[in-house]
Specification:
Layout (H helix, E strand, L loop, with lengths): L2 H18 L6 H8 L3 H4 L6 H16 L11 H18 L4 H6 L14 H13 L4 H22 L11 H15 L10
Helix pairs in contact: 1-4, 7-8
Protein name: TetR family transcriptional regulator
InterPro entries: Homeodomain-like_sf (IPR009057), HTH_TetR (IPR001647), Repressor_TetR_C (IPR004111), Tet_transcr_reg_TetR-rel_C_sf (IPR036271)
Pfam family, one: TetR_N
């Protein structure tokens, strides 16, 4: 299968996760929806677990990449922009977010939800570039990732539609919840 077909498989898996959580993902269901034999999907992934790993890789890829330049000029702005990027992934896929934080990381010292070596190396370099020692940068990374993980795991249920409600209708209530817990209200001074 081509990359286009692989991307379609990831989209289909994310749609199933968005509707019913990770437990809803099934290669048979995806094959049935696509009108193809399930064996065809096994040419792309070896099974459900690999498909979930590919979904996590897709979510991680959405966190990687340059941050808003204006925000990233200071270390505080950098952390805020990175936090917003991770939060955007959680808001778009709140039922998939737990996969991002529970799947094995690329390296044993990586902390969820920042599972990408690219993101963490950039974060550490950015902090060191703003005067942090190596030890201070690692401590800031650990504290930031712990705060971000806790905050987003508490906020994620606000974005999951209640039974019988559509996501659009639920969005009003989620906005109210988000306003109470917004990471944007976090202070930016270093003490």
């Amino acid at each position: 299968m081509s990359q286009v077909e692989r991307d379609g498989l990831v989209r289909a898996a994310l749609e199933l996760i968005d509707q019913g959580g990770p437990q809803a993902v099934s290669l048979r269901v995806i094959a049935g929806q696509a009108g193809v034999p399930v064996e065809q999907l096994y040419r792309v992934v070896s099974g459900r677990e690999e498909l979930l790993d590919v979904v996590v890789a897709e979510l991680v890829s959405r966190i990687e990449g340059p941050l808003e330049e204006g925000m990233a000029r200071t270390w505080q702005g950098y952390l805020q922009a990175l936090g917003h990027r991770v939060r955007e992934v959680m808001v778009m896929h709140p039922r998939a977010f737990p996969l991002l934080v529970t799947s094995p990381p690329a390296a044993p010292w990586l902390r969820p939800p920042l599972r990408s070596l690219i993101v963490v190396e950039d974060l550490l370099a950015h902090l060191v570039g703003h005067g942090f020692s190596d030890e201070e940068a690692v401590q800031a990374y650990q504290g930031f990732s712990s705060f971000l993980l806790g905050h987003l795991l508490l906020e994620a249920p606000c974005w999951v539609p209640a039974p019988g409600r559509s996501r659009c209708r639920w969005t009003r209530a989620a906005r109210a919840c988000r306003a109470r817990t917004s990471i944007a209200r976090m202070g930016t001074s270093r003490t």
